[in-house]
Amino acid sequence: MSQIIYPTTNLKKPSNLVIERGEGVYVYDNKGNKYLEAMAGLWCSSLGYNNKELIDACTDQMSKLSYSHMFGGKTHQVGIDLAEKLTSMVPMNNAKVFFGNSGSDANDTHIKLLRYYFNAIGKPQKYKIIARERSYHGVTIASASLTGLPVNHSNFDLPFEALGILRTDAPHYYRGALENESEIEFVDRITNNLEKLIIEEGPETIAAFIVEPITGASGVIVPPPGYYEKVQAILEKYDILFWCDEVITAFGRTGNDFGSNTMGIKSPDLMTLAKQLSSAYMPISASLISGDIYQALIEPSNKVGVFGHGYTYSGHPVACAVALKTLEIYQRDNMFDDAAVKGDYMQSKLQKLNAHPLVGEIRGKGMIAAVEMVANKKTGQAFPNGDIGHYAMAACQRLGMITRAIAGSSLAFCPPLIITTSQIDEMIFVLEKALDETLIYAMKNNLI
Ligand code: PMP
């Protein structure tokens, strides 16, 4: 026990795994046990642990300028350099970037940027945001309101009504399709629902639609082919901005540089980045907007005054230096292409577990995946609660691997991008053993 209030934890159960150090793709606890970190922490430690170049970038910047801010006319070179590199990488038109500290606050910033923008162009009534069921966008009051998971709403009186968050379908065919509905029919139905929602609410009141190109915390949902094409056509028709939350999917995670590219999304108007932006060596996030939106904010004739938003640590120079080095390493080492090849390998190895009696669906792209366990393989019937997921996660941990139980009964996989193919084999080997142990547990407890 300790004096800590633990995040995203059942506070009635004490936390007991004390992680002490990390090296490459492995972490070690205070008893010397070694674990393969198959989740890269919380989908973030892309370059693994104890990367000397990132440590040097950090300490060099600390010696040079440990802190400076960006309020009211000040800036610094490492922040300018990071903004230049980052905006040259993202699949957006003439992007501009605001720096923050976390994915949650970056999404809050975007909500405020949207309001500021529509006030600037004289459309203050255009403030509502469409988000999907089972999405994850963070846990601040505003970003938790965007999030579509009950656990982040209940007991917090969320979503916060004044934000005007509208909800549309999760694009998960396996769980969301009607009986005998094809993938094409499913996509047609849920995109028609989106259009109906827009018409009912009034397009003139809706600012943006936010998506994770491939979801993370809600179960690694990969939308069926054609989904984003239809969504983008609808948004264009009704003049609604498209906002990609790429906090997990950016920087080589999904088999391309950005998840938007993996999913065939055409230049989003807004993009949120964090996590792998600095390989999680320092907290930093980025809220990016297109050049067109930015242009409206600096128009001398617009109706808004000072952009009254900013964090003490917006563009923290040490975080910027580490992020800049991270991006340089990604490019220098061709890491996105490399991750795409290893991602294909990981997905094909995982698919071999499809025959396991406990496995209902294996889904993912590149270096992100989820294995969903079901009570009835034939019908896909879900387990009644998250028990099995937690049992399987604990089994993995006993066997020397860290994963996460998500979306009830799925195990998530999101290893550091530096993982080797033999370490992927090790990951699959442990998973298979853990699934076998979990099957025995399920049978003994009449859960299957
Ligand atoms: N958006 C997405 C897609 C995320 O996965 C997360 C975190 N898992 C967030 C936003 C929130 O980021 P943070 O935890 O850094 O606030």
Automatic annotation (TrEMBL):
<keyword id="KW-0808">Transferase</keyword>
<dbReference type="GO" id="GO:0008483">
    <property type="term" value="F:transaminase activity"/>
</dbReference>
<dbReference type="InterPro" id="IPR015424">
    <property type="entry name" value="PyrdxlP-dep_Trfase"/>
</dbReference>
<dbReference type="InterPro" id="IPR005814">
    <property type="entry name" value="Aminotrans_3"/>
</dbReference>
<comment type="similarity">
    <text>Belongs to the class-III pyridoxal-phosphate-dependent aminotransferase family.</text>
</comment>
<dbReference type="InterPro" id="IPR015421">
    <property type="entry name" value="PyrdxlP-dep_Trfase_major"/>
</dbReference>
<keyword id="KW-0032">Aminotransferase</keyword>
<keyword id="KW-0663">Pyridoxal phosphate</keyword>
<dbReference type="InterPro" id="IPR049704">
    <property type="entry name" value="Aminotrans_3_PPA_site"/>
</dbReference>
<dbReference type="InterPro" id="IPR015422">
    <property type="entry name" value="PyrdxlP-dep_Trfase_small"/>
</dbReference>
<protein>
    <submittedName>
        <fullName>Aminotransferase</fullName>
    </submittedName>
</protein>
<dbReference type="Pfam" id="PF00202">
    <property type="entry name" value="Aminotran_3"/>
</dbReference>
